[in-house]
Backbone:
């Protein structure tokens, strides 16, 4: 499944880039994220709970950041497995500066398998859009809070 | 005691309610899951979530530590169990070794990887979640045409082209006919993957008695005897130490015409643990791990004269086999080739099948097995040709039908059609539909901007499968008929009904032949320790072949009955009718019960006659039978939503002599609804990575009662010369006739928009897109 879109952030490009790499920030913004720990440079271990209609379960996974080009872009590689299946995703995030603000563009490809694919297919598209929206909404809050005087 | 009342009416040909139904509708039938045994274990299977992956390791410790878990077995434990059998023997067929549990790789989503054995089903299921399989996913391919493309991932690394077999059949001067043809029409036609969805999923109970070294397997199966032979081979135990029982079977539709990994796996567990074990397939498992049906991409070309006479047929058939061969996987598309000329005279044919491996669950027999695909193809092509020539679809069919005086008719594909009068059901259907008025109404509807369609299919099919040389494991059938000492009649048949109602139809035949009451006949089936070897129920064969075996056994039995009757009446001139043996001179008579008592007490025996009243017959049919029919469907399409309304459904089926019109009607109704499922709703979809996207009933739409039209039914009767009962078979007929009639109707409705063909399923979304000017 292809996902793409963009979201405005109330932060300059450099700060937005840093926020997007801060495990604590990411963990607090990702819906269902229970744990995100940096294990190596650009590599994080993640635990998150996924709810998709009647199917819910925990995913253990890895998040990797590759091809960093601060403060313009980086690549995000996410892999997770759990009892309800597995997910693999890869996406390019590009930050376009706009003074006090910036725009984050994302473009990626997500694969899911196992029970979530077989049972939740109808909902994957809308659920992932919802999750992305929630993530950016939270991130905006964090960005705004941090920049508030 | 048996009834000794003289019967006045015969039962054959009458609407008799099914004997089976009271137990089925009151929940008192015994299915596999109803079997309980002391100390029985329960098994649950760990299945692959990946379509293609290496297995780097399996961690079972946490599962084994769960209280109540008895054992966990993985591929390493069962590597000496024989492979899941493939019964096909096409030249050059590539057969991958199909272990009952994956060894170092998995090949489809749902591939069994390990099995948990526990004290109860819930613990077994919980323990499945505690097993960690370290998969290393690799690239998968799920679409047969993509699998044939250069550089596609190899399903089996040893065969990088993904081709399991090529099959070629040809008759006549095909190239010349096409070169000289006045018209050639071409179309790519798909017959999508379908998931069988029997109401009862699969299930197995295995019970091993170590003292006797005897294993009993209860399985929801259409072929208990073949299963016994094959599973005994897989487990390396003597065939006569294995008993297979198929109790009540809650629908099969072909998906239980198979031997799966789970039967041998449960046998293995029962032998290993010394305890009985039960496995019941969940619905989600059923959808991903039981065979699917169809899976064709067909490229058709038809050559014809301008007057509509078909002169040549070419077919390139791409069969999605899935990752392995189940029992008959590669055989199914060859049935399509046999049936490709349909009811038409054209003998110049060429077919090329390419059987393709994909990272999907195997395809195999599903109601009609190869014939629905072929019929859909030829019936769509005939309509496409008619549209090209601006002919009425009725006219073009009448022009090409084999004439009733040409039977037996040798087809270009090597079949010998037994008997037929193809205009008869078509004319009946046209009269029922009031065809000319419908066309007039359609003209008005079109003028008013409405989309009304009239579609028909005139189908034929191969039933009574089949003569043994044409089947992988014998195509005969067996029966033993006993008159018990009290005069009741027991029939042991080698067939295995799953809803077809042979306990009723066989009772009708036996009651008529022996002159006993309908309720005095008990028909037993499905237990290899009770019934002599038989083949099973599939391919609309049970009554035509199994019924004939019973009929012939009864004829032999009647000779013996008369010998005992003559002895008791002290006469050498007796006749047997209505359950009594009568001396033709004195008019004195004795009942069957009296004769049966005398035959079993055996105080005195007729010359050269053994005690008892029993006879067996193993009947080898000389040919298939070829039923046929005509279906007409009237549709109207909602311009705003694309929803298809089936305004009328007319089904006229000719299945030879009708034993029980109520059962024929039931088979036609069910068959039509199953055909509608393919035509309008059902599609087993895998994504490009081999994930099954239709894994439950929210995503896989099967027709419900509210989606089923009223079906106007009629029968014509053209008896077959192939068997003495004159019956052909009807189990699959209506499914075969349905889908082309529906699609022809919808294409007809949309033809003012220039629509020439649409692939199934015709969902509202697909039709809506067509109406919006996009292509489907």
Residues:
């Amino acid at each position: 499944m292809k996902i793409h879109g963009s979201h405005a952030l109330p932060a300059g490009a450099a700060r937005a880039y840093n926020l997007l790499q801060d495990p604590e920030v990411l963990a607090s913004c990702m819906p269902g994220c229970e744990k995100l720990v940096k294990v190596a440079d650009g590599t994080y271990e993640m635990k998150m709970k996924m709810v998709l209609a009647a199917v819910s379960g925990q995913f253990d996974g890895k998040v990797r950041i590759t091809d960093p080009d601060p403060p313009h872009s980086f690549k995000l590689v996410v892999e997770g497995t759990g009892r309800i299946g597995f997910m693999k995703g890869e996406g390019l995030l590009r930050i376009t500066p706009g003074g006090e603000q910036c725009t984050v563009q994302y473009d990626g490809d997500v694969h899911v398998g196992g029970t979530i694919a077989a049972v939740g297919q109808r909902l994957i598209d809308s659920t992932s859009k919802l999750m992305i929206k929630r993530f950016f909404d939270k991130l905006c809050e964090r960005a705004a809070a941090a920049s508030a005087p | 005691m048996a009834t000794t009342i003289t019967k006045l009416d015969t039962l054959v040909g009458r609407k008799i309610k099914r004997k089976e139904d009271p137990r089925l509708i009151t929940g008192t039938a015994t299915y596999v899951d109803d079997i309980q045994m002391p100390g029985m274990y329960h098994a649950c299977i760990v299945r692959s979530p990946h379509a293609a992956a290496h297995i780097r390791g399996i961690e079972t410790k946490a599962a084994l530590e769960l209280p109540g878990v008895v054992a966990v077995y993985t591929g390493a434990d069962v590597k000496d169990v024989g492979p899941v059998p493939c019964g096909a023997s096409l030249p050059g067929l590539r057969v991958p070794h199909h272990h009952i549990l994956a060894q170092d790789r998995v090949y489809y989503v749902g591939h069994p990887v390990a099995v948990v054995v526990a004290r109860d089903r819930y613990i077994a299921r919980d323990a499945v979640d505690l097993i960690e399989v370290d998969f290393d996913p690799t690239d998968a391919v799920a679409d047969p045409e993509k699998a044939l493309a250069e550089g596609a991932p190899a399903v089996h690394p040893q065969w990088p082209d993904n081709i399991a077999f090529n099959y070629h059949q040809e008759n006549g001067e095909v190239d010349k006919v096409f070169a000289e043809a006045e018209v050639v029409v071409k179309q790519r036609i798909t017959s999508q993957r379908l998931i069988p969805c029997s109401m009862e999923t699969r299930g197995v109970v295995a019970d091993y008695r170590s003292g006797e070294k005897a294993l009993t397997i209860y399985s929801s199966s259409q072929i208990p005897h073949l299963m016994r032979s094959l599973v005994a081979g897989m487990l390396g135990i003597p065939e006569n130490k294995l008993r297979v029982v198929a109790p009540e079977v809650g629908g099969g539709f072909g998906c239980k015409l198979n031997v799966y990994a789970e039967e041998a796996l449960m046998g293995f567990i029962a032998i290993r643990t010394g305890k009985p074990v039960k496995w019941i397939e969940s619905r989600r498992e059923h959808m991903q791990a039981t065979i699917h049906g169809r899976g064709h991409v067909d490229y058709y070309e038809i050559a014809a004269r301008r007057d509509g006479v078909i002169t040549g047929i070419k077919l390139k058939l791409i069969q999605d086999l899935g990752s392995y061969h189940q029992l008959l996987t590669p055989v199914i598309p060859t049935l399509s080739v046999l049936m490709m000329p349909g009811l038409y005279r054209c003998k110049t044919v060429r077919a090329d099948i390419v059987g393709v491996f994909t990272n999907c669950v195997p395809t195999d027999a599903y109601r009609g097995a190869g014939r629905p695909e072929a019929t859909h193809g030829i019936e769509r092509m005939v309509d496409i040709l008619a549209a090209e020539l601006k002919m009425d679809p009725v006219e073009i069919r009448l022009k090409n039908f084999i004439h009733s005086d040409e039977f037996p008719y040798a087809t270009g594909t090597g079949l010998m059609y037994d008997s037929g009068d193809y205009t008869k059901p078509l004319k009946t259907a046209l009269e029922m539909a009031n065809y000319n008025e419908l066309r007039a109404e359609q003209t008005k509807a079109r003028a008013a901007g409405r989309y009304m369609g009239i579609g028909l299919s005139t189908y034929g099919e191969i039933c009574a499968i089949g003569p043994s040389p044409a089947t992988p494991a014998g195509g005969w059938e067996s029966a033993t008929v006993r008159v018990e000492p009290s005069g009741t009649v027991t029939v042991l048949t080698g067939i295995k009904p799953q809803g077809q109602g042979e306990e009723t139809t066989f009772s009708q035949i036996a009651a008529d032949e022996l002159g006993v009451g309908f309720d005095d006949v008990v028909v037993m089936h499905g237990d290899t320790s009770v019934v002599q070897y038989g083949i099973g129920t599939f391919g609309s064969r049970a009554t035509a072949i199994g019924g004939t075996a019973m009929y012939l056994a009864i004829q032999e039995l009647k000779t013996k009955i008369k010998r005992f009757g003559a002895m008791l009446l002290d006469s050498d001139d007796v006749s047997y009718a209505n359950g009594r043996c009568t001396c033709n001179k004195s008019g004195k008579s004795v009942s069957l019960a009296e004769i049966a008592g005398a035959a079993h007490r055996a105080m005195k025996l007729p010359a050269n006659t053994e005690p008892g009243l029993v006879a067996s017959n193993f009947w080898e049919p000389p040919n298939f039978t070829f039923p046929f029919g005509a279906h007409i469907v009237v549709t109207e399409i909602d311009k705003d939503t694309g929803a298809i309304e089936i305004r009328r459904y007319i089904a006229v089926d000719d299945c030879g002599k009708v034993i029980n019109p109520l059962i024929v009607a039931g088979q036609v109704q069910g068959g039509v609804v199953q055909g509608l499922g393919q035509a309008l709703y059902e599609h087993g979809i895998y994504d490009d990575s081999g994930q099954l996207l239709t894994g439950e009933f929210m995503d896989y739409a099967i027709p419900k009662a509210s989606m089923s039209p009223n079906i106007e039914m009629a029968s014509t009767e053209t008896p077959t010369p192939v068997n003495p009962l004159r019956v052909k078979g009807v189990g699959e007929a209506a499914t075969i006739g349905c889908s082309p009639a529906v699609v022809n109707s919808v294409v007809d409705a949309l033809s003012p928009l220039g629509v020439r063909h649409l692939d199934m399923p015709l969902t509202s979304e697909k039709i809506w897109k067509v109406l919006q000017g996009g292509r489907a």
